[in-house]
Amino acid sequence: MTTAAEFDTSLGYRLNPQVALRPEPFGALAYHFGNRKLSFLKVPELVELVRGLGEHTSVEDALLAVPQERRPQFRRALASLAASDMIRPR
Asked: Measured over all CA atoms, what is the biggest interatomic distance in the chain, rounded to whole angstroms?
């Protein structure tokens, strides 16, 4: 498991195969079948970003699709998802 302090945006990440994303009007619910954690992705753009992480060479590459002023918010959200093992390095 990655801590927020260890989250390296220069690495490639992907959705953990043990995680299911369930679409919701606000974004999505992420459920980890291994550790039974539940996370709320409250921004539809974050859901899109998480789904497509594996297609990018790094988190920073994936964040190019996000407006620059929102990138710090998304980095914090991704760090939290990494700390709870929802996403993991490739």
From this structure: 34
Give the pair of three-digit tokens for residue 48.
């899109």
Measured CA angle at 40 (ends 46, 22), to 5 deg: 80
Q: What is the DSSP letter of 21?
A: E
Per residue in 7-54, pLDDT (tens digit) is: 999 999 999 999 999 999 999 999 999 999 999 999 999 999 999 999
Q: Which residues contact 77 (CB under 8 A, 6 or more apart)?
A: 41, 43, 46
Tell me, what amino acid is at 22?
R
Spatial separation of the C-alpha atoms in residues 81 and 60, rounded to whole Å:
16
